[in-house]
Design a protein that fits this description.
Elements: H1 4-88, E1 92-97, H2 104-112, E2 116-119, E3 130-134, H3 140-145, E4 151-154, H4 161-184
Parallel strand pairs: 1-2, 1-3, 3-4
């Protein structure tokens, strides 16, 4: 028969073997795992650095493009001023806007052309100028009491150079019609 002491020694040997195995396995595999993780980390850092540099390059490119666009817009406004400045300069334009519409771009464009811009309040007179109505449709008060040739509906605020040019063309045409009608009467 096997003695208790023999069982105890065998059991202790098994636990010592397990401990040595864990110790050797952990230290032998650790440098490989650490080295692999470090390589992955270095690759990720390199990718991050490349992405960061690319992002900075794109920001610089966007800033250059925005400056070019701004310069081109100034050139176009200058061309518009050359084309319409003599005809529209010194004229008075009243601007009425629907509650949620924003007429600031129109006001800036008019100032660049030398046009005097006056905010319009309902019920006042605009006999000495043209009324620009910035709205989807003409308000009821305008349809009931105003002559059609003295106001112009702007359904959409001009957000491009072509739309601004078209608005100026319509304004010039309407002001010419108003001047001819005044001269006839």
């Amino acid at each position: 028969m096997i003695s208790f002491r023999h069982h105890l020694i065998t059991l202790a040997a098994v636990f010592i073997a397990l401990g040595v195995g864990i110790l050797l396995g952990g230290t032998a595999g650790h440098p490989w795992f650490s080295q692999g993780a470090q390589e992955i980390l270095l690759k990720m850092e390199a990718k991050y650095d490349r992405a960061l540099k690319s992002n900075q390059d794109l920001k610089q490119q966007i800033n250059r493009l925005l400056q070019e666009v701004e310069q081109r817009n100034e050139e176009v406004v200058h061309m518009m001023a050359m084309r319409y400045g003599n005809e529209l300069g010194g004229k008075k334009v009243y601007v009425w806007q629907e509650g949620d519409k924003e007429a600031r771009p129109i006001t800036r464009l008019m100032h660049a052309m030398g046009v005097e811009v006056v905010p319009y309040e309902q019920g006042k007179s605009w006999d000495d100028g043209l009324l620009l109505v910035v709205a989807k449709q003409p308000p009821q008060w305008l349809q009931q009491g105003a002559t059609a040739g003295k106001w112009l509906l702007v359904e959409q605020v001009p957000d491009s150079v072509g739309k601004q040019w078209a608005l100026l063309e319509k304004m010039q045409h309407r002001l010419t019609e108003m001047r001819v009608a005044r001269e006839k009467s």
